[in-house]
Specification:
CATH superfamily of the largest domain: Zn peptidases
Transmembrane segments: 429-448
Helix content: 40-55%
Active site: 378
Subcellular location: Secreted
Bound molecules: zinc ion
Number of strands: 14
CATH architecture of the largest domain: 3-Layer(aba) Sandwich
Radius of gyration: 24 Å
Signal peptide: 1-16
Main location: secreted
Amino acid sequence: METLIAFSVLVLFVSGYEEFRGDQVVRVKAKSLAHLTLLKKYIETEKNVDVWGEGEEYEFHLPSKQISSFEKWLTENGISYEVLVFDLEDLLNEEEVSNTKNSSTFDYNKYNDWSEIKEELLHLSRKHSSKAFLFNVGKTYEGEDQIGIKVTNGDGRSKPVVWIDGGIHAREWISPATVMYFMNKLLTNKADDRVSQALAKYDFYLMPVFNIDGYKYTFTNRSTRLWRKTRTKYKESKPPYKTCYGADPNRNWDSHWETGINASDNCTTDYYRGPFAGSEKCVANVQTFLRQLKNLTSYWNIHAFSQLVLTTWSWTSALSKDYPEIKRVGDVFAEAVSKRYGTHYKVGPPSRFLYPASGCSIDFAHDELKVVYSYGLELRDKGHYGFILPANQIQPSGEETSDALLAAVLAMKPEYQMSSSSRATRIRFLNDPAVLFILVFLSNLFIYRNCS
Ligand SMILES: [Zn+2]
């Protein structure tokens, strides 16, 4: 017994303070507007609550000390709840054990830190030098090169561009792992006809880790694993003017940023939108790069968790004018993602499943860059593990997401791949009386010649 106690003390000493021991993740169902209002107020006033999911159902990560008072508060207000995770520290231990690496080479079935991913990107661009090209959009706040890989079929012809980024939220580790998996599939899977068909139609720009500074921070130690934002240093605008870090890079885009919908002005919160649109270096870099990118035809912003295909608009519950076509391709994704493992995704705008939010990347791509096929993905799972998905789910996530991305891009129609402004110009051009006259004249000439 004494040996056991000594061993436990030693384990605790070696592994350090157990930051999340006894913490729970609780799912709360809002059945009325009154419930929703109460829950929103609770989030605003209780600084210790970490929101994992928001919408009709909320998922809260609660510190152990707060559990009993929260449950009492829910019962008093007639709000029902279920406990998804009974002890968060156990879940983190499970993830850590699942991520043990045996090989010195890059392991696509494990969660890798930024230095390992960076090295693999450099390695891939050297190994597949005729079809994988490293691109760099600029430096992050902490001075990292914000890089990705352009994958082509190597025929030297420019094609419409599909952009895919992962890891905009630091703690969503399955996202960079899935983008890396897809990138590797595009580069190595010669036997898969869908890969060659997709590469015959498109050039792919893949950025596995968008928010590099935040992602690096989540690998610092156990206590930082659940960090969501960037790492820019700020100060509170009101007393006590505390120093705070990071803004939410998916509330910081130059698209309806000023409305501040489901975004905060308080830098201590997880949903801080930053002092101005594009204040976060990683966002400003990609915005500038995308504005200059020719022929951007589809944009994918990859998150976790909830199993959703999110469509525009994000900032309002109104639907995009191209919604029927956007939904059709979203449904193709959802159908394909379910084929291997029966993983069920829902398709629609964020206001339907989560909440509307301003300053999001999919709205920037759709609104400013006129990209019709602009989507956000929420990958596995539906809350059982949430952000702490064990590494043995990377491969199934990679397989099903690759299937679905390939099916979706191959289902896109050429007439929606030119920007809305180009489409508008084409319609205006065809409606111009002078152009119509010339077209009628040419068609008559054609008929005349055929009849002669
Ligand atoms: Zn996210």
